[in-house]
Amino acid sequence: MEAAFKINQLRAYYGNKEALKEVNIDIQRRSVTAIIGPSGCGKSTFIRCLNRMNDLVPGFNVKGEILYDGKNIYSKDIDVIDIRRQIGMVFQKPNPFPKSIYENVVYGLRVQGIRKRGVLDKTVEESLKKAALWEEVKDRLNTSALQLSGGQQQRLCIARAIATQPEVILFDEPCSALDPIATAKIEDLITALKQEYTVVIVTHNMQQAARVSEYTGFFMMGELVEFDTTQKIFTTPSNKMTEDYITGRFG
After folding, report:
1. Distance between CA atoms of 230 and 34, rounded to whole angstroms?
2. At a CB cut-off of 8 Å and minimum separation 6, what does 42 contact?
3. Domain range enclosing 31
4. For residue 157, is pLDDT > 80?
5. How far apart are CA 249 and CA 116, in angstroms?
6. Could you tell me the CATH number of the domain that includes residue 192?
7. Which of 20, 52, 119, 198 could be stapled to 168 by a disulfide with Cβ–Cβ 3.0 to 4.6 Å?
8. What total of structural domains would you count in the chain?
9. Is residue 18 in a domain?
10. pLDDT digits (tens, 9 = 90+) for 182-193
11. Has residue 146 been placed in a domain?
């Protein structure tokens, strides 16, 4: 299998505080990789390095390299806007814009200067279908996205991420604000998305990691303690610390 990302000697800092310590990991294309670990262990910092979202944090800097399709995304000549178009992101809390459902989905296309109604209409339908939301909203595309339930809003945010045709979708604890039924829908969706996209998901929920991912990385205090197939991590982990965390002895 081919890696979408090759991460070498990655260190991340907020000012003088080291948040990630020499992380080395390959993330496989068209698969789901889960990132687990206790609060404050560097999970969100790591995933936000993958599309340079941390650039927006004052005092943040990185060392090492993140190769995406063979290019270091932290090189001087990289177009950050283009990186974020190719590597979409869905956040912890649903964050639809205070616009219609339709305008939420086409937002990224409008930013790119795409105005053709036919293209926009087609993208809205395709993206909402991929996000398993089309049947629920197709008759009210012009109503406010804020009228949707929390789970629907999160699927709308996924549709918005899909609309710009990314290759990778990052999920930063996408179900933490959702009820179990909405969570199950998002998990089904993540399983379906890996047919077309490389997916990385940060989750506190170990059952969720076990259900949706093929690979799992366990972080502890900024270090990648162990990375392997999800089955191996959850059945025969190599590291005692991983085993203690998964069996609930700490964390």
Report:
1. 8
2. 12, 19, 20, 219, 221, 222, 223
3. 3-96+169-246
4. yes
5. 56
6. 3.40.50.300
7. 198
8. 1
9. yes
10. 999 999 999 999
11. no
Cross-strand pairs, 198: 168
CA distance 61 to 54: 8
Mind listing the pLDDT tens digit for each residue in 96-144?
Answer: 999 999 999 999 999 999 999 999 999 999 999 999 999 999 999 999 9
Confidence of residue 249 (pLDDT cuts 50, 70, 90): confident
- Are 168 and 197 in contact by the 8 Å Cβ rule? The answer is yes
For 11-41, write each residue's pLDDT tens digit. Answer: 999 999 999 999 999 999 999 999 999 999 9
Q: How far apart are CA 92 and CA 178, in angstroms?
A: 10
Q: What is the CA radius of gyration of the chain?
A: 18
Residue with tokens 């076990």, as numbered in its chain: 210
Residues facing residue 35 across a β-bridge: 202, 217
Q: What is the pLDDT of residues 46-64, one digit of tens each?
A: 999 999 999 989 999 999 9
Identify the bridge partners of residue 1 per DSSP, sorted by sequence position: none
Q: Is pLDDT of 220 > 90?
A: yes
**Does 141 map to a domain?**
no
Token pair 């260190």 is at which residue? 11
- First-last CA distance in the chain: 32
Query: Given the DSSP bridges, would you call strands 87-90 and 168-172 parallel, antiparallel or unpaired?
Result: parallel
What's the 3-state SS for 89-104? EECCCCCCCCCEHHHH
For the cut 90, the answer to whether the pLDDT of residue 251 exceeds it is no
How many Å apart are CA 231 and CA 136, to the nearest integer?
35
- Answer whether residue 127 is part of any domain: no
